[in-house]
Amino acid sequence: MGNWVSATEKSSFLKWFLKHYQLKQREARMFLEYLLKKHHILQNLSFTDKIKYNEKTVVISSIQADEPGFVYYSTRGKSENVSAALNDLMSNPTGKLNIVLHFQGKQLNYRYLKLLESKSDSLKTYRQFEQYSKDADALINKVLLEQEIKFIKLLIDEALDNRDEKEFKRLILKLQDLENELASKKKP
Fold it and tell me: Which ranges carry the UPF0302 domain (predicted)?
């Protein structure tokens, strides 16, 4: 799952794919065959698992898949017209093109998996989730600490009411420790 995949590897996989899978739309097969004839388009072709709505993306499905047979996404919207996608591709043959293939067993197919774009977007999302998780944990710990401080203050009041000097001093020390801990958590 490296960042760069040669046009030869892409071509080899697409030939294998066409040989082993029947597509839902005959025109989708013609689209892939057109890509195979254009080395410069293959160089700008990226295999991906997700539709990129802000970039040109083609989705092609085999007959075993539940997804539509052919869908083309571009900045102008969504189209199921293969001719429109081909015309757009011919008018801008050096532009980046993403392709999503749906076929049985793709998650276990090493030929396909090694062509997929790097998982940097997934890693970025994971890191963002991790940061949110850390922030949430810090907030929860802060709130729990504040609640414990409130409770200790109530116990201090009770110790004063009962004139229990020993308990009062113990609770004051505990309160100071908790307040110091809270102050240290507030520092960035």
Answer: 9-113
